[in-house]
Amino acid sequence: MNNSFHLPLIIFLILLFIVGCATTKPIAIKPNEHIEIGWTPRAVLETKTYPWFDSNYVAYKPNGEIFSQLKSIQDSLSFLVIYGTWCSDSKRELPRFFKIMDSMNVKPEQIILYAVDRTKMYPPGIPQEYNPTHVPTFILKYRGMEVGRIIEAPKGTLEQDMFNQLFPLTQ
């Protein structure tokens, strides 16, 4: 065959390979930073790596009156929390969330934690399904169906916003 035919084909294949490899998205991490990625158990947040969790958990005093009004649906609730250990809003709201969950006696299996990097696109899976635009995103589910979200920061308190979204289900 003619060499003039091979050269464009080889260049095309090389460019195709380079473009295909370039689409791999790097994890957005700052130097000397440790962040969680993917499904994480609560216990990871309660380690020395994240001292903000325990101090913010202890400091938060939720409004206990709200919990008794949600008792009737408590066992039908589940929560998906998309967060970033690098995010100041997550550092504030995640310990508060767990203080509320503990006050309500919500079982650990009713809570799924999913950590993302700064792009909120890595690791893949959760972003396509739940499309988080900000973290933390608290997705409230009743009998497996999404019934509400609290995104980034509550309008009032976290427990009040949860109550406002869940109270109609108690009627």
Secondary structure layout plus pairing:
Layout: H1 3-22, E1 38-39, H2 42-45, H3 51-59, H4 65-70, E2 77-83, H5 88-103, E3 111-115, H6 126-130, E4 137-142, E5 145-151, H7 158-166
Parallel strand pairs: 2-3
Antiparallel strand pairs: 1-3, 2-4, 4-5
List keywords for this structure.
single chain, 171 residues, alpha+beta, 5-stranded mixed sheet, 7 helices, 16% strand
Describe the structure.
The protein is of the alpha+beta class. It is built from 7 helices and 5 strands. It has helices spanning 3-22, 42-45, 51-59, 65-70, 88-103, 126-130, 158-166; strands spanning 38-39, 77-83, 111-115, 137-142, 145-151. It has a 5-stranded mixed sheet with strand order 1-3-2-4-5, covered by helices on one side. Strand 2, helix 5 and strand 3 form a beta-alpha-beta unit. Helix 3 crosses helix 5 (88-103). It is globular and about 70 Å long. It starts with a helix and ends in a 5-residue tail after the last helix.
Strand content: 15-25%
Number of strands: 5
Question: What is Rg?
Answer: 22 Å
Mean pLDDT: 83
Strand order of the largest sheet: 1-3-2-4-5
Helix content: 40-55%
Distance between the termini: 79 Å
Based on secondary structure, the structural category is alpha+beta
User: Describe the biggest sheet?
Assistant: 5 strands, mixed
Low-confidence stretches: 15-27
State the shape: globular
Give the count of helical stretches: 7
Order of helices and strands: HEHHHEHEHEEH
Short structural summary:
This protein has 171 residues and is α+β, with helices and mostly antiparallel strands. It has helices spanning 3-22, 42-45, 51-59, 65-70, 88-103, 126-130, 158-166; strands at residues 38-39, 77-83, 111-115, 137-142, 145-151. Helix 3 (51-59) crosses helix 5.
